[in-house]
Design goal:
By secondary structure, this protein is α/β, with parallel strands linked by helices. It has a single domain, classed as NADP-dependent oxidoreductase domain (TIM Barrel). Helix content is about 40%, strand content about 15%. The strands form two sheets. It has an eight-stranded parallel β-barrel, surrounded by four helices. It is globular. The chain has ten helices and ten strands.
């Protein structure tokens, strides 16, 4: 379950320890708590409808703009275009109704997004970013720097970046505790994880710290945590049923799905799961934004028939 607002950090870590022990004892195959599952994510009317990420209360556009295509060493395909072109793409996204932006220190995209959003009211966009911090002190300095780089007084979603091991909670206890405190202070609105691997994904599905998870999902198993999409979809179902927000990524296999029919099939698959609340696309041009929004509208229409 996602931690309620009045859950103190001591109770949280007691629940985390219990969940971790149960996961270890079961080999990763325990059932969700015997509570009514969170309602299925309803199919939006359009590609830019606002959706709520699980029980977090954070509302985003169905489609978000990613800024980390080939994102390494504080650069990405988006930032390599320069501030002027980056801003043109972001402003086009906003004009089309996309208000959800995914950034990260690893991509070097914080200051680019700050420049692109200058003059835009803070309540008109949602920022999701990530940290590699393991301890509380580093997490605090990261968050303080991120706020300065982004030019905002709060960040909507802050994720532990690229969890690769089953026992990631043990190695990140300090940063988890700090992020919970930061949420209580209003510096962030929600916290969670992005995972690379099935073991960490299974842990995230059960860990109460995770309010929102950024997950790789498409029907071809491209650049995913498992080559079997159904295995990943099963974990996303568990996350959704417990009220966690699920944000999809790698919908087009990091650009490997170049054919229109493959992209259309992936959009229909992800939207049809009923467990992925929103998804991120690494847009690199205004034309790509228009194309994906059009294809998503068509996929929604096809699923509603």
């Amino acid at each position: 379950m996602t931690p309620p607002l009045n859950l103190n950090r001591r109770d949280f870590f007691a629940q985390t320890a219990a969940a971790s022990a149960a996961l270890a004892a079961s080999g990763g195959a325990i059932a969700s708590a015997a509570t009514a599952p969170f309602p299925r994510a309803s199919l939006p009317k359009t590609s830019t409808d606002k959706v709520t990420l699980g029980k977090s209360g954070v509302k985003v556009s169905l489609i978000g703009m990613g800024t980390g295509s080939v994102g390494v060493e504080q650069a990405s395909n988006q930032t390599r275009k320069g501030v002027k072109e980056f801003t043109r793409i972001v402003r086009h996204a906003l004009d089309r109704g996309v208000c959800f932006f995914d950034v990260a220190d690893q991509y070097g995209s914080h200051v680019y997004l700050r420049e692109a959003l200058k003059g835009v009211d803070r309540d008109k966009y949602v920022i999701q970013t990530k940290t590699h911090a393991h301890d509380a002190s580093t997490a605090r300095t990261h968050l303080e720097r991120y706020l300065l780089e982004l030019g905002v007084d709060h960040i909507d979603i802050l994720l532990l970046h690229c969890m690769t091991e089953k026992d990631w909670p043990a190695k990140n206890q300090g940063s988890m505790e700090y992020l919970m405190k930061a949420r209580e202070q209003g510096l962030i609105r929600a916290h969670g994880t992005s995972c690379h691997g099935m073991d960490p994904l299974r842990t995230s599905a059960k860990n109460p710290f995770v309010q929102i998870d950024l997950a790789r999902i498409n029907p071809e198993g491209l650049i995913m945590d498992d080559r079997k999409p159904d295995e990943v979809a099963s974990e996303l179902q568990e996350m959704h049923d417990s009220g966690k927000g699920v944000v999809g990524m790698k919908i087009f296999g990091e650009g490997r799905m170049k054919e229109a029919d493959r992209r259309d099939a992936s959009l229909r698959y992800v939207l049809g799961l009923g467990t992925v609340d929103a998804f991120i696309i690494g847009f690199e041009s205004p034309e790509q934004i228009d194309d994906v929004l059009k294809k998503t509208d068509e996929a929604i229409g096809a699923l509603k028939k």
